[in-house]
Amino acid sequence: GQIFIDTWGFLFPDDCEKAADHARMAASVSHDGDGLEGAAFIAAAIAKAFATDDIDAILDAACAQIRSDCTYAKAVGAVRNFHREHPDNWRDCLAYLQKNWGYDRYPGVCHIIPNAGVCIMALLYGRTLSRAVEIATMAGWDTDCNAGNVGSILGVAGNLAAVEEHYRAPLQDILVLSGISGYLNIMDIPSYCKELVALSLKVRNLPVGQELLQKEGEINFDFSLPGSIHGFRVSNPNACSLRNEHGELTMLYDRMVRPQACRLYYKPFYRRSDFDDERYMPVFSPTVYPGQTVSLRYRLEKFSGESVLIS
What we know:
The chain is mostly helical. It has helices at 6-11, 16-27, 34-49, 55-63, 71-85, 90-100, 112-126, 129-138, 143-158, 165-168, 189-203; strands at 174-176, 186-188, 233-234, 240-245, 248-253, 264-265. The protein is built from 11 helices and 6 strands. The termini are far apart.
């Protein structure tokens, strides 16, 4: 229940109750019991993170949205108590989890309780997004989901400044999903952020600004969000680099020699073979089609060297 529930926390900033209620309903399609408690907890934690970066305050608010007598709440409390008594070494806490809350006690493919313990451990011992994600990953078990959950909470709490460049840059703003609807599976992070904000305003009956609205059947890259490159890439990263400067996508050619070339491109379609791990069997629909018009504005600044051909 907790592994796919982050969006509800994003949609209801500082409204833990609504975030938890919607998360619980969504998770009930495929989960029950502690799965629903975990969904409510993570969504509420993300919602609370919009209002504070205090980890204990976030955990208190999330705990208030689940039953105090459920196993999930007991696991959260156990890790918090261990941290109070042993605040220095997360590996000691991991050993405690493995002994008392491990997979041997909760059978199944991927039980929520041990992984809930890892999430709380990572938040308490990590405190920052980077360190918490690292701890959640090094701890093992359901690494991708645990790292994603704690990353969502601390990403909201710390804002964009919390995301270190060495984690952000390799992603290149590319967001590829494995949902059942192919037309939703190719996105870029800045555009998705705008969609989330627009949806959040709609569900809370607040006005949606024109800058957030996307025309159906169109994709638009305005590079307005700090550092955004909207999934654009270069074919020769050794000679060219991309960055966002003052709301513009900047492509820097550095020491290129004849007959080197470099393409700036956006990938509008994927196949499963494009990915090292495609066990969830994603399907894709193109984001561009024949007959559509592409428009752009560009300028070229020459610092030194010979002329460059743009085609």
